[in-house]
Every structure is written in structure tokens, then in C-alpha cells.
Amino acid sequence: MNLRARILLIALYADFGGLHASKVLHQRLLEGVLFANIRFHDTISRGRLLNRFGKDFEGIDSNLPDNFGRSVIFGLSAMTSTITVSTVGGLPFILAAGLLGTVYYNVSKIYGQTSRDMRRLDSVTRSPLYSIYGETIAGVTVVRAFGASSKYLRDMLRCVDTNCNPYYWMWGVNRWLSARFNLLSAVVVGMAGFVIVLTPSISSSTAGFALTFASTITFDLLFLVRRFVGLEQSMVAIERVKEFSEIKREPAEFIEPRPSSEWPANGEVKVEDLVIRYAPELPPVLHGLNFEVKPGEKVGILGRTGSGKSTLALSFFRFVEPSEGRILIDDVDITKIGLTDLRSKLTIIPQDPTILSGTLRSTLDVFGEYEDAAIYEALRRVHLIPSGDAEAEDESTVNASVFRNLDSSVSEGGENFSTGEKQLLCMARAILKRTKVIVMDEATASVDYATDELIGKTIRQGFAESTILTIAHRLRTIIDYDRIMLLDQGKIVEFDKPAKLLQDTSSKFYALCKATGKNELAMLKKLAGA
After folding, report:
1. Is the pLDDT of residue 514 over 60?
2. What whole-number distance in Å separates Cα of residue 301 and Cα of residue 139?
């Protein structure tokens, strides 16, 4: 943190009081983090957040105003004592005081540098401790089921030992400073007494007055150094939190002119020379992709791990910005519209489903836009409720299935549902939303083949007019799609109808299907109509 920032922060505390200032700073920093980048919460561990917005802010609230005020008080006291003793002792004491002042400064400098480094290490080593606490509490059921309690206990104790090490040495350096300042204190008092003895003109009352002040100089200097170093350590906490306030923000939520409320009306997708890099200095993940998806077309995207499938999906929502090229949806460049307008008009069904805590109704209909009948219909379409079931109207059917009662509670992260059920709930949300462009990233990876087949029928019926881009590893999931796109190292190597690709025995898609076995290959050909 530069000097200007430190002065402004100190002035903020002096003018408004430490508690109020810290709340203002806390609010500004939280706003910067929450609206800077949605992916921030996906890339920063919970331990680092708890550490910086918990422990660091606690230190700023309680320590910084006190250290600043006491540093000023002890500094003025030490200055007054030095001037008083120098006035009595004269030139010999001034010369000796200058020599001892140099020694004081060097000792203080060593202490300050070491304490700051120990404080940084203490803060850094505390983050893994918070992370393992949160992970263990969140996954306590799984940990106990696999008998891994002792492993997590050992990991926790190892993190505690690592965290205690810099804290121990931080206090060790503090005791080191006290020992040396006590020795210097004896030298100062002895020197003042020696000067007084050698100067007969100094009266006994003046000598006692000077010795009294000389004995307090070391106390003032010791606590001045401690408090000033504590002030610098508090600045370390501000420095760590300030990093989060300078995160690069995402593009604007709204950009004028905004697209029409009907956009996208058709769901036509065009990708032109698309290049994606996660950082300017890194090589591209996607290399100049060019393809076009017609309105209502169903496209399956295949490829090995690291081929760029998920990056392509993220680019449609501008979680990663194009380095070159553009993506057009109904002839509208998605980089020319706001993020809210873009993301509210598209739907993604992720591989790792996100479920909000609350009720089943609030999970499926977050903004309260749909009738209960529409919600039940969406649950039927994803086969969470049998097709013949009616809505939960009487007491005999309310508790028969959790999905028949829209007021059923949903725990944080949907922990009371299986991964497959959470994916089906995400698909039910997509059916309710009925957007023209839907991206599915391994949406049926956690369901069985029978359910996958039923969901495939639902997709063909419920999203008949929607353009669908499906990332899948199961070939049966996308074998009956209109076209198949095969990615390899960020490039499109094949993009055609599945039946045509299967007829070409030299194609990579045919090799993928053949690797599943003869019986499965025959079934895939039958499903594709090859």
C-alpha cells in the first residue's frame, strides 16, 4: 500500500472513528468483490474469504485505531523526555543520545521487518485452516462414511502446527526486542547519571528530575516501536483486503441500446473466428472456431478432456471473453449487450448443478413467475413425478414424494437431493424458462441410462423449438441430434450429421463409437439411422 493510501486511511479513522470507518471500508470492499466478477467466487477458496473478511477486518477494527493513537502518544512522550534530559545534560548527553538513537533505530528496523513478515505468514497459513474447517463440516457425512475422520484430523493438526509456527516466532521477536531495549534502558540511565556526576553545576533537584525522565525514555520508545509495528501489521491486513477491491470488474450489466424483449426470437447461433485465452500471456484454448447452428437445431459437442468443450460453453455466457472473433445470436454480437440481458436470455444446465436453499418452489421458480401447474408439468417432463400424478392437493399425497409438495424444504446446496436429482431440477428450471438457446454441459452425467433416455425424449419434445448445444461423453445422449461437433485441442475436426459420420469409417466419431463395442456400435448406428 502506498503512502498516500495509508495517510487517507489514517485520516478516515481520525475523522470518523475506527468502527465506522471499518464498516464503510468493509461495505465498499464487499461491493467491489460481489460485483467485480462472478467467477471470483468460483476461483477463490472459502478459507481465503473467511480469513480476509473475518480475521483481517477484525484486526483492522480493534487494532488499527488503538495502535495509531498510542503510537502518537508514546512518540510525543519519548520526544518530551529526550528534550528534557538533553536540556539538563547538555552537549555530552546530546552526543550520546544521538549514538544510542542510531542503535535504537537499527534494532527497531530489524524488529519491524521481521514482525511484518511473520504477520503475513500467519495470515497466509490461516487460510488452509479455515478451508479444511469448512470442507469437513460441509462433507461430514461423506467423511464419516469413508472412515476418513482421522485423516482430516491429521490434516487439521498439520495446518494448526503450520499456523502456530509464525505466530510463535512473532512473539519470539517481540521478546527479543524487549531484552535489547531493557539493556539500552540501563545504558541511557547510566549515561545520564554519569553526565550529571561530571557536571557539578547541576543541582540535586534537577539531577533527580533528569534521571526520572531518563528512566521513562526506554519505556516510551519500547512501546512506541511495538505500537508502530502493530500499526504496520494492521496495514498488512488492509493491504490483503484491498487486493479484493481492485479485482478487474466484469463488463457492464446493461449496455444501451438494449436488445428487444423478444431476443433471441429464433435461436440462430454463429461463431466467427473465435479465439479464447484465459490470460494474454497464455496460449489460446480455442483456435479460430467457425460454425453456424440453425434455429431449433440440436448439436452435440464431443471431445477429450481439455479439448475446449466447457470453454466454448462458458464463452456463450461471457464468463470468458473472446480474444478474437465474435459470437452472434440472432445476428446480435453478444459482446455488444449487457451481461444481465445476455445471461437472462440463455439457459445453461451445468455438470455440477447449483441448487439454492429454500423450498422446492423457490428453487424452480426463483422470481415467482410461474403457476404451480406449470411447475408440476416441468417436474413431470424430467420424470421426477410420474406422468399420471396430479398436483399435491390432499393430505394423502403430500408426503408420498418430496417433489409432489412444492413447499418441501431444500437444504443449502441441495444436500437433501442426489446429484442426479439436482441435475433434473436444473433441467426442470430450463423447461420453465423456455429460452431459445440452451447449453447443456454433461447435464445427464449422474443419471442412469433409462432416465437419460427419458430425458432425451423430453428434450426433443419440450425443447423442440429451442437451439440446444449439448456437451456429453455418453454417445447415446447425442446420437440422435441433428449434428455432431468433435473438438480436438481447441479446433473443430468434424462437424456433420451423426449418420454421415458413422458411414465414414475413417472419421474420428466412428472411432469413438467403435471403441464402445460391437453391440453398442450397432445400437448407435440404429439410433442415428445410419
Report:
1. yes
2. 33
State the pLDDT at residue 403.
Answer: 83
Q: Which residue has the cell 495509531?
A: 68
Q: Per mean pLDDT, which range of 306-315, 341-350, 418-427 is the poorest?
A: 418-427
The long-range contacts involving 25-31, CB below 8 angstroms and separated by at least 24 positions, are 25/60, 25/238, 25/241, 26/53, 26/57, 28/245, 29/53, 29/241, 29/242, 29/244, 29/245
Helix axes 204-245, 149-198, angle to 10 degrees: 150
Whether pLDDT at 45 is above 80 = no
Domain boundaries, the chain: 3-124+164-245, 356-416
Average pLDDT over residues 327-335: 92
User: How does strand 409-410 pair with strand 491-496?
Assistant: unpaired
Closest by CA to 429, choosing from 397, 460, 463, is 463
Q: How far apart are the C-alpha atoms of 211 and 167, rounded to whole Å?
A: 37
Cα distances (angstroms) measured from residue 470 to each of 340, 427, 457, 467, 478: 23, 13, 14, 10, 7
- Choose between 407 and 250: higher pLDDT: 407
Average pLDDT over residues 364-371: 85
All three cell numbers of 244, joined, read 479484493
In whole angstroms, give the CA distance from residue 479 to residue 71.
73
CB atoms within 10 A of CB 221: 25
Give 107-142 pLDDT, tens digit per residue.
Answer: 878 887 787 788 778 877 887 887 888 788 878 888
pTM of the model: 0.61
Contact 385, 391 (CB under 8 A): no
Helix extents (H) in 328-445: 339-345, 360-364, 372-381, 395-398, 419-433
Place of cell 467485480: 36
The topology under which CATH files domain 3-124+164-245 is: ABC transporter transmembrane region fold (1.20.1560)
Please report, for residues 7, 30, 426, the alpha-carbon distance to residue 27 in angstroms, rounded to integers and kept in the order given: 20, 5, 33
